[in-house]
Every structure is written in structure tokens, then in C-alpha cells.
């Protein structure tokens, strides 16, 4: 059951380090099973490369169930490949055909420099969160959870924004390498909850400032981010963030 | 053999923690600023501890091997988190959560720790909600609950099938806040390679920068490990690919005893293995057992499609064997029951190593309720199923999508096929009541320690324990140790102990490259996994375990003479990382078999075939084995057993029954 009948040509971006140039390198793979995940197909390739004495392809991956946000391949011109609503680790080879040529590149964005092969540095996202993507409540300060009823519709909407896995597909697919979908998802989650109100305007200002400082581009409403997001994060979040950002300019300095 | 001192506070069970909290030595704010704490791991336990300690004023350094602390494997926990809130008014209480956990763990956990866990459980929910974690709510705006295995109350809080993600992102945001304020220094893509021990105390770590390959020395007045469990010793498990035992194992080799290594949890509801290419197994949350009924055909080798098998020809074996708890028996019981049916020839699917998890009955039931709400009287079956599917989708949509993506089958139409898989390890570094290991100044929390789940963990209790340890326990108990360390100045990094530890790490790395063998690291990892699954998995016996020990010893020799690690040490090299982790798994695997062989009884997830009741249930031997096995490393992969006797003063120890 282990082997299948798919033969593939892979064109994979190989780059030794951030200091060297990279290029696409061709590899042939045979007997790939349609039940394999895309990353398991890469495991087979790497096993072959190691046995030949070559260096395996380096790529980020961890949970392999679509929730950690580590995997990040740009497959045939689309982040996470051709299927909607899945990450690369959940993409299965049955989504491809025998004889296909598959081009695999890293995320490309100024704010996400390549570390090696298909691995990029996404720590810019962490710095944006550190700038304000939180509610300032120290451990031990909380009241009883049910003292703060939150309408279900509002809580559900906050949850939908909070489902972002921070993979960076939105940035990778955007022609401007904008991080607005990622940043707005966090802002929007907290802005919809009563707990998030005290810091609402201060938060949007600091996170947007950090986003700009990291070198992410601006949003021109193309909507590619929403289309490619494996978790279906909505463009509405960007509208909410923009509204809050604008409002924050009218709020008096003291309340920020 | 030496007795271990668990440092359990004196007094009544219900007052131990309260009294200790108010009498715990404190460190004043000025002194906290000059005390440095190292936290290894950034999951629920690590992130919550790092954030809380920084809030209190300590200088914190936090390390994770992932590219961001948000990717720690806690993120993948699906079903929920338990807390004794009694919001459902169904008779829950701190004592009941304590009782369920001790019983669920088959009377092999420490009473005092478990009671404290139950006590702080309610604070965790408060804290998370205050952070903006969007837990599921009812229309009235209050928090919703659901049922989990091994309990008869509804005390599980959740966020769809992504509870771990939401809780971790809460802890991560608290951590990032401290990073932004400069109070935590974060080291991502760093792996802990060794603990530095000076004059018997943990004083720092050696870490490898995974991008540059550089070895770094870091000093700390105390070192906290929140580095997770070791389920990947089986190669195939529900753990992330990177989850590993290295930090805990290095600590073990530096003097920290390893507690109950043989207690592993095999989760009953995972997607079955589909082929040799498989790299990991995917869990289908226990919450599905709220609405899914588990069955196999009554006839052996029945190859009909499940929808063609009529009701009377189905064996709902959990409901048959355990009428009181039905499909919601604890995980160890459900897993063994599935194995029993498959071994007896009733398994389904191509491999025959699977059982059905069927949502049809409850889909229809929900549909009927919905129809009522919509004023549809006498709805036909189709209408019920259509409306019911909407309800099921809201509850478990992401899990159903995941199942479909992996198997290519639609679980709204066909029952899921599931089989048990390695999921969690109850064993871990031995710690006392303060969560300190046998090395002073070295602490372990979350899945990395052994302390709260006995021989079997109940569902939705891992998230509870990780956050309890990190938010509420360690930040206080560590004061007892650090209050005596205020005079200790930062130890210079050229101290001989740092130099020596770094040199020994470097020599191991060099050795990997010197072997120039013929087989990949994965080759050895898969072999180890197969030995462990076959002989130290869901069922164990003395013969198999003895064989496994010899096989693992041989595997270790083969590994160290024939592994091939490509590339170089001073670069980003995931194969090198894997080699180090698998080397440690091989040694741990041997200890797990030794521990399983030593424990001549069955309890929880540890099922020795020689010790079972007539009905095939686990048969404990309380007279001889009511102890924690704490193994001391004696060099050259040999171990000495120490015992911590378990005393049950508040619970009557009994044969566990879910009938």
C-alpha cells in the first residue's frame, strides 16, 4: 500500500542561506501514492536525496494537521497549493495528476527573508503581536468568567477572526506583500470583545505602526489574501481595522 | 532504595495549597529584578509560566525550537479544557474533579497535586476569558460546556475543535506582551542541548541556534522545562513532527529522575494508518464521542458498506460493555475495547484495524429538535438529517473537514473509521509538590512532568494541567527556592561547568557527522517506533518487553555506527536536529520497556496481558505497586529504581468501574 503510481517532476527552490542566491532545481519522483500528503511526498524526496549523498530540502512543518501554521510552500503559484481552505500539510497528492510538473517556492516578501530553501523568517509577525496584540491583564487579575456575558454572535465572530494560524499565506499571495489580513484578524478579534475595549485605539495604532516598520506593503483591496487563507479569515476584518485606525485618530490623545 | 520526598504540605487535603500559598517565602520586587529564570518550551505551560514570572518582575529567557512560540504543539489540542465551575448546576465541585481525575488515572496519581489542580482549574477559565480567549458561549452570553470521557458532569470549556489553539494564543499574547516590554527575552529556533549543573544546582543551559548552528551558553538562577511529552518515541503519534524528549532526557542524564516512563496514552479516536508513507497520525477529538456512537458489525469480516448494515446487526460494544458511561468511558478503556474487537476479527476498512464512529442517530435527534424550533411538525427523516447536519457542522465542522481531507470520505454521509493511536505521555520528569525535579533549581511542568494524571489522563485535562502549572503553581512555588538565591550573582559563562557542558554537546554533534553511515535518521526512528508499538504499546507482556529491550539495544548500536547525517554543524540542518532527538528516543525507549517490565500489574494505559480480570479489565496490584517509579540515570544507559509510595487518605481505592 505504500507505493502508488504517480510520477512527478518537481521544480524546487534551493538556496543555501540568506547570503547566497537561489535557483529552481528539477527532481523526478516516481511511485508516489495519491494518499500521501504533500509533505510526505517531500519526505520521500528527502529520503532519496539523503541516500544519494545529497542535501535534503529544508522546509518548515510541524503539526501536520493544519493548525500550527508552520508549513509554508508556494505551490504552482499559490500559497498552500491548489485546494481551497487547506494548509500544505493537509494537501494530498490526490489533488495532482500523474505526470504533473509541480513548482515549489518559498513565501516571497521583503519582511519574510529566506533562511534556507523553502524556509523563511516570519518573526515579523511576532513583533507585530508584541506591539499590541494582547489584552493587558496580569495573571491573577481576572474576575469570574461568567460575570461578563458576551452575546454569542459577537463571541463567534471574534472566534472566527482568532482562528488565524499566522502562516503568512496572506502576505505571500499579496502583490504588495501586505500583512493587513493577519494584523486585522487580531485587532478585530479583540475589538469585538468587551475585554478588548480599554486598549482598542492604542492597540490599532501600535500594531499598524509595527506592521509598517517591518516592511509589509499596503492593502489595495485585491482580496487575494482572503481567497488564499487556509482558515477563511474574512476581508471584513481589514475594513474593521481601517475603521478603528481612522477612529483612533479622532480620539483624544489622553484616551489612547 | 531511597525514599523520595515529595514535599507535600502537612494538613487537610483541602487546605494544603491555601496554607502553603500564604506561607510561601517571597522574593521582594527589587531582588526579583536581578534574578534570571530560563524557560524551555513555549506551549501552554512554558508560555504561561514565562509571561507570569515576567509580570512578577523576574528576568526571563524563553526558548523554543519552533520559529514562533505560537506554534508549540499545545496549539493542536482540539476538544477542551476542564474546570470545576459547576456552571451547568450538575453537581460538579473541586472534590468531584479531583475524584474523577484520581479514578481516571487508575489510582496512580498523587492526591495532593491533583486536588490543587482541581482547585486552580476555575481560575484558569477566568484568566483566559480576561485575555480575550473566545470560548464557546450560549445565546444568553454565558460560557457553554460539553461532556468528556470519564465524567458524568459537563465541565469541559471549548472553542469549537480548536481549544488548544485559542488557549495557546492567549498565553502567547501574554508572553508577547512581556517580550514587547523587554521583560522576556525570546529565543526562537533554539534547542536546549544540555542543562548546566553547578554545585548540585541547575544554573543554566547550553542551547543550539538552529539557524547558525552556534552553541550558546545561558545562565539562570533556575531552569524550567515545559518541553512537552515523548509520544514520538513511537514514530507514529498525534504529536507534531518536532515534538521530542531531548530537553527532559538531558535533564534526566544530569540527575533528574524520570517518573513512570511506561505510562503512555493511546487515544481511541484517530484516523487509521493508510500506508507505510505515513508520517503522523491525526486525532479526531474525544468531544466527538458526545454525539458519535462506536460500533463494529456483529458478523466477522462483514464487508458491506456501513450504511447497508442494519441496526440489529451492529455491535455498539462500548454501550454493551459499559452501560453507565457508554461511549464516554475513559480513553484507555475505549482504546483497549477497540483493539479487542479488531483482534477478534470484527475490525472494518481495508486494514481491518478500524471501528466505526457514527453520528447518524444524533444527527437525526438534533434535526428533530431543530424542526421543532422551526415549527415543522412531523418532519420526515430527510428534513431531520438536513437540519441535524447543520448542528453537527457547527459543533465539529473543522474536524469533519479534516477527516474528509485526509481520508477522501465524507463523514456527513458515512461513519468515520477510527483506531487508537499514541497521543500523550503521563510519565515524565519526577517532580515534588513544588514541581521541582530531583535537581535543585530544575523544574518541570505540563506534559514534561509526571505529576497529575497517574496511569491514564482524562480528556480535556492536559490543557488544564499545562496552564495550572504555568499560570498558578510554578510562579508561586519557585519563590521557595529563589528566595534563598537572592545573594547568588550571575555565574560567568566561562565557568568550567559551562565550558565542559558545551564541549560535551559539541562532541556528540561531531560524532554524528563522523559516522558517515548509510541509513537516514528516519530509518532508525521508524524501526524504534515499530518495536515500541508492537511490544510496549496498547498491550504488553514480559516476553515481548524482554525482547524489545534487546532489540532496542541492538538498534542503538546500529544507529551509532550506521546513521547518515548530511550537511554541516554550522548551518540550518534539520537532519542533525532529528539525529539528536532520535538518539535520545532510543535511550528513553529502553527505559520505558524496563519500567513496563518492572510493573507487574495493569493500570490505566499500562496494560500487561498477564494481569487482567476475567472481563479483560486492567488488574492492579495495590499491595505491591501503589508507587511512582522514579528512575535515576546511572550512566551508560543504565538506571536505578527509586519508589515514591502513593498514599490515598481521601479516596477509597477501588477497582475502577465504568459499568
UniProtKB/TrEMBL annotation, chain A:
It comes from the Bacteria. Gene3D superfamilies: 3.10.20.30, Alpha-helical ferredoxin. Its cofactor is [3Fe-4S] cluster; [2Fe-2S] cluster. Pfam families: Fer2_3, Fer4_8. InterPro entries: 2Fe-2S_ferredoxin-like_sf, 2Fe2S_fd_BS, 4Fe4S_Fe-S-bd, Beta-grasp_dom_sf, Helical_ferredxn, SDH/FRD_Iron-Sulfur, Succ_DH/fum_Rdtase_N. Residues 155-185 form the 4Fe-4S ferredoxin-type domain. Signal peptide: none annotated. NCBIfam families: PRK07570.1. Belongs to the succinate dehydrogenase/fumarate reductase iron-sulfur protein family. This is Succinate dehydrogenase/fumarate reductase iron-sulfur subunit. It comes from Pedobacter gandavensis.
UniProtKB/TrEMBL annotation, chain B:
Pfam families: FAD_binding_2, Succ_DH_flav_C. Its EC number is 1.3.5.1. Its cofactor is FAD. One of its GO terms (molecular function) is succinate dehydrogenase (quinone) activity. InterPro entries: FAD-dep_OxRdtase_2_FAD-bd, FAD/NAD-bd_sf, Fum_R/Succ_DH_flav-like_C_sf, Fum_Rdtase/Succ_DH_flav-like_C, SdhA/FrdA/AprA, Succ_DH/Fum_Rdt_flav_su, Succ_DH/fumarate_Rdtase_cat_sf. Residues 525-658 form the Fumarate reductase/succinate dehydrogenase flavoprotein-like C-terminal domain. Keywords: Flavoprotein, Oxidoreductase. The keyword Transport does not apply. The keyword Protease does not apply. It is an enzyme of class 1 (oxidoreductase). Residues 37-463 form the FAD-dependent oxidoreductase 2 FAD-binding domain. This is Succinate dehydrogenase (Quinone) flavoprotein subunit. It comes from Pedobacter gandavensis.
Amino acid at each position: 500500500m505504500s507505493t502508488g503510481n504517480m510520477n512527478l517532476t518537481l521544480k524546487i527552490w534551493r538556496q543555501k542561506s540568506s547570503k547566497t542566491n537561489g535557483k529552481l532545481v528539477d527532481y523526478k519522483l516516481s511511485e508516489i501514492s495519491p494518499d500521501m500528503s504533500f509533505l510526505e511526498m517531500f519526505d520521500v524526496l528527502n529520503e532519496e536525496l539523503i541516500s544519494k549523498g545529497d542535501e535534503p530540502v529544508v522546509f518548515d512543518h510541524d503539526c501536520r494537521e493544519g493548525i500550527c501554521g508552520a508549513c509554508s510552500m508556494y505551490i504552482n503559484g499559490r500559497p498552500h497549493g491548489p485546494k481551497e481552505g487547506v494548509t500544505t500539510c493537509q494537501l494530498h497528492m490526490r489533488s495532482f495528476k500523474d505526470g504533473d510538473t509541480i513548482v515549489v517556492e518559498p513565501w516571497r516578501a521583503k519582511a519574510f527573508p529566506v533562511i534556507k530553501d523553502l524556509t523563511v523568517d516570519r518573526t515579523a509577525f511576532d513583533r507585530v503581536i508584541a506591539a499590541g496584540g494582547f489584552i493587558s491583564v496580569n495573571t491573577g487579575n481576572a474576575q469570574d468568567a461568567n460575570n461578563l456575558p458576551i452575546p454569542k454572535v459577537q463571541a463567534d465572530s471574534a472566534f472566527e477572526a482568532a482562528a488565524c494560524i499566522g502562516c503568512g499565506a496572506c502576505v505571500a499571495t499579496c502583490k504588495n506583500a501586505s500583512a493587513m489580513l493577519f494584523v486585522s484578524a487580531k485587532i478585530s478579534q479583540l475589538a469585538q470583545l468587551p475585554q478588548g475595549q480599554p486598549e482598542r485605539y492604542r492597540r490599532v495604532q501600535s500594531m499598524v505602526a509595527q506592521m509598517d516598520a517591518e516592511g509589509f506593503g499596503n492593502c489595495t483591496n485585491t482580496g487575494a489574501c482572503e481567497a488564499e487563507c487556509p482558515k477563511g479569515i474574512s476581508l471584513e476584518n481589514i475594513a474593521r481595522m481601517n475603521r478603528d485606525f481612522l477612529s483612533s485618530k479622532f480620539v483624544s490623545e489622553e484616551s489612547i | 532504595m531511597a525514599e523520595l520526598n515529595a514535599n507535600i504540605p502537612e494538613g487537610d487535603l483541602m487546605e494544603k495549597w491555601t496554607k502553603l500559598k500564604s506561607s510561601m517565602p517571597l522574593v521582594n520586587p527589587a531582588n526579583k529584578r536581578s534574578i534570571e529564570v530560563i524557560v524551555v518550551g513555549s506551549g501552554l505551560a512554558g508560555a504561561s509560566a514565562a509571561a507570569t514570572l515576567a509580570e512578577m518582575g523576574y528576568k526571563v529567557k524563553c526558548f523554543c525550537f519552533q520559529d514562533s512560540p505560537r506554534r508549540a504543539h499545545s496549539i493542536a489540542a482540539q476538544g477542551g479544557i476542564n474546570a470545576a465551575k459547576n456552571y451547568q448546576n450538575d453537581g460538579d465541585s473541586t472534590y468531584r474533579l479531583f475524584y474523577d481525575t484520581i479514578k481516571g488515572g487508575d489510582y496512580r496519581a498523587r492526591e495532593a497535586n491533583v486536588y490543587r489542580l482541581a482547585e486552580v482549574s476555575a481560575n484558569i477559565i477566568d484568566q483566559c476569558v480576561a485575555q480575550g480567549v473566545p470560548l464557546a458561549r450560549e445565546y444568553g452570553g454565558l460560557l457553554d460546556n460539553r461532556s468528556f470521557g470519564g465524567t458524568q458532569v459537563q465541565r469541559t470549556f471549548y472553542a469549537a475543535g480548536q481549544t488548544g489553539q485559542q488557549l495557546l494564543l492567549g498565553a502567547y499574547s501574554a508572553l508577547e506582551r512581556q517580550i514587547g516590554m523587554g521583560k522576556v527575552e525570546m529565543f526562537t529556533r533554539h534547542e536546549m542541548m544540555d542543562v548546566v549543573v553547578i554545585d548540585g544546582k541547575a544554573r543554566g543551559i547550553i542551547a543550539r541556534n538552529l539557524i547558525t548552528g552556534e552553541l550558546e551558553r545561558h545562565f539562570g538562577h533556575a531552569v524550567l522545562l515545559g518541553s512537552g511529552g515523548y509520544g514520538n518515541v513511537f514514530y507514529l503519534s498525534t504529536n507534531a513532527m518536532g515534538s521530542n524528549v531531548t530537553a527532559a532526557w538531558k535533564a534526566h542524564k544530569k540527575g533528574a529522575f524520570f517518573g513512570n516512563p511506561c505510562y503512555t496514552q493511546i487515544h481511541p479516536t484517530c484516523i487509521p494508518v493508510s500506508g507505510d508513507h505515513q508520517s503522523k497520525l491525526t486525532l479526531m477529538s474525544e468531544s466527538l464521542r458526545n454525539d458519535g456512537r462506536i460500533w463494529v458489525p456483529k458478523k466477522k469480516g462483514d464487508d458491506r458498506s456501513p450504511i447497508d448494515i442494519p441496526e440489529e446487526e451492529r455491535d455498539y460494544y462500548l454501550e454493551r460493555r459499559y452501560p453507565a458511561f457508554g461511549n464516554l468511558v475513559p480513553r484507555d478503556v475505549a482504546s483497549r475495547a477497540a483493539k479487542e474487537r479488531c483482534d477478534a476479527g470484527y475490525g472494518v476498512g481495508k486494514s481491518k484495524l478500524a471501528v466505526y464512529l457514527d453520528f447518524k442517530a444524533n444527527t437525526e435527534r438534533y434535526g428533530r429538535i431543530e424542526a421543532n424550533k422551526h415549527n415543522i411538525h412531523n418532519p420526515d427523516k430527510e428534513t431531520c438529517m438536513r437540519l441535524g447536519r447543520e448542528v453537527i457542522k457547527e459543533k465539529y465542522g473543522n474536524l469533519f473537514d479534516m477527516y474528509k481531507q485526509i481520508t477522501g470520505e465524507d463523514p456527513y454521509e458515512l461513519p468515520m473509521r477510527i483506531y487508537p493511536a499514541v497521543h500523550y505521555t503521563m510519565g515524565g520528569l519526577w517532580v515534588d509538590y513544588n514541581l521541582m525535579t530531583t535537581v535543585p533549581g530544575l523544574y518541570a511542568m505540563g506534559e514534561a512532568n509526571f505529576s497529575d494524571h497517574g496511569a491514564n489522563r482524562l480528556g480535556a485535562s492536559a490543557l488544564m494541567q499545562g496552564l495550572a502549572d504555568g499560570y498558578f503553581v510554578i510562579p508561586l512555588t519557585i519563590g521557595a527556592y529563589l528566595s534563598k538565591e537572592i545573594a547568588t550573582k550571575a555565574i560567568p559563562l566561562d565557568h568550567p561547568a559551562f565550558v565542559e557542558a558545551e564541549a560535551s554537546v559539541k562532541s556528540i554533534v561531531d560524532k554524528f557527522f563522523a559516522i558517515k553511515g548509510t541509513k537516514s535518521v528516519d530509518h532508525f526512528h521508524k524501526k524504534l517506533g515499530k518495536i515500541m508499538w508492537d511490544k510496549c504499546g496498547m498491550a504488553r507482556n514480559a516476553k515481548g518487553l524482554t525482547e524489545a529491550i534487546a532489540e532496542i539495544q541492538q538498534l542503538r548500536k546500529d544507529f551509532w555506527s550506521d546513521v547518515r547525517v548530511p550537511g554541516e554543524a554550522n548551518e540550518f540542518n534539520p537532519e542533525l536536529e532529528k539525529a539528536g532527538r532520535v538518539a535520545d528516543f532510543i535511550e528513553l525507549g529502553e527505559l520505558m520497556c524496563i519500567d513496563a517490565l518492572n510493573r507487574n500489574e495493569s493500570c490505566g494505559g499500562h496494560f500487561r496481558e498477564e494481569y487482567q480480570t476475567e472481563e479483560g479489565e486492567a488488574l492492579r496490584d495495590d499491595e505491591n505497586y501503589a508507587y511512582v517509579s522514579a528512575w535515576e540515570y546511572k550512566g551508560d544507559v543504565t538506571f536505578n529504581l527509586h519508589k515514591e509510595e502513593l498514599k490515598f487518605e481521601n479516596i477509597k481505592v477501588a477497582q475502577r468501574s465504568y459499568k
